[in-house]
Amino acid sequence: MPTIIVCTNFSKTSRNALTYACSLINSKKNKEAFDILLLHIFTIPPNYSGDGIALVTINNSLIYVEEDLHEELEWVHEEYPTINVIGKVTTGRLLEGLEEEIQEMNASLVIIGAGGHYGDLWSWDNSILTALRDLSVPILTIPPNVTFSPLQNIAFACNLKSVSRYTPFNALKKIIQFTEAKLHVVYVAGDEVKKDPAEAQNELFVHEKLDELSPVYHTLYESEVVGAIGRFVENEHIQLLLVIPRKHGIWDSLFHKSYTKELSRLNRLPIMALH
pLDDT tens digits for 148-194? Predict the structure, then answer.
């Protein structure tokens, strides 16, 4: 049975991400076929000394966390009684803890609330940014002001310069087939109107791989990636943006703090990282 992991720190943003996940499952006819693991990863502070006083403090914190998790489970079971939601508190680092639960639960997706503006993500702990880039399954970030509505238009930000046989076309197909949304493939080509031979070859490869989905292709001849995509998702009424994160490229551009103004169009848009 497919499992979705929803990360929580018991904030309003996390509650909103949980609501989005449950609403997404509720929108499907076979909603009983999905499980949700509501997961809190308790990270012990790096300055933890291990003495008696510190140990008592950690134990007390874990007790409070368990109580918070119990309250969240009570709420979600009351609001979404047809969805099987279980909870778990674990300790450790975010990336390692998530990956362990992904393997144990055979999870297919991780959902996490994105606090504030996307530009604020750079103020997150580095482990969160690493998880966004390096997890073995897709991870979906939900802005705090986003409420779920049936997905009709999904965009895939495709960089033709980096397309290869490792590009996760199968994962992309599963998402489109699950949501039954229209796929838009968007490429920001810069100021050059003519693609170089490698890009042209990769474009044919993308068309071949996604042919069964009958996507709509868009090439944006603009030099500023973030602004171009921001305007595109607004004009085309995109409800979900799919990206392939890398250390350098569109992922860093989309989440860099210097792009806060351009990101205003993306603050109401869930973004999913494929790997």
Answer: 999 999 999 998 888 999 999 999 999 999 899 999 999 988 776 66
Interval 51-60: pLDDT, tens = 444 555 667 7
Choose the final residue of a domain: 142, 177, 196.
142
What's the whole-model pTM score? Answer: 0.87
Binning pLDDT at 50, 70 and 90, where does residue 222 land?
A: confident
Structurally, the chain folds into a number of domains equal to 2
78 and 189 part of one domain: no
Token pair 């848009």 in the structure block, residue: 269
Per the structure, the complete domain to which residue 268 belongs is given by 153-273
162 and 44 in a common domain: no
Q: Is residue 147 part of a domain?
A: no
pLDDT tens digit string along 102-137? 999 999 999 998 765 554 554 455 666 677 778 899
Whether 64 and 8 map to the same domain: the answer is yes
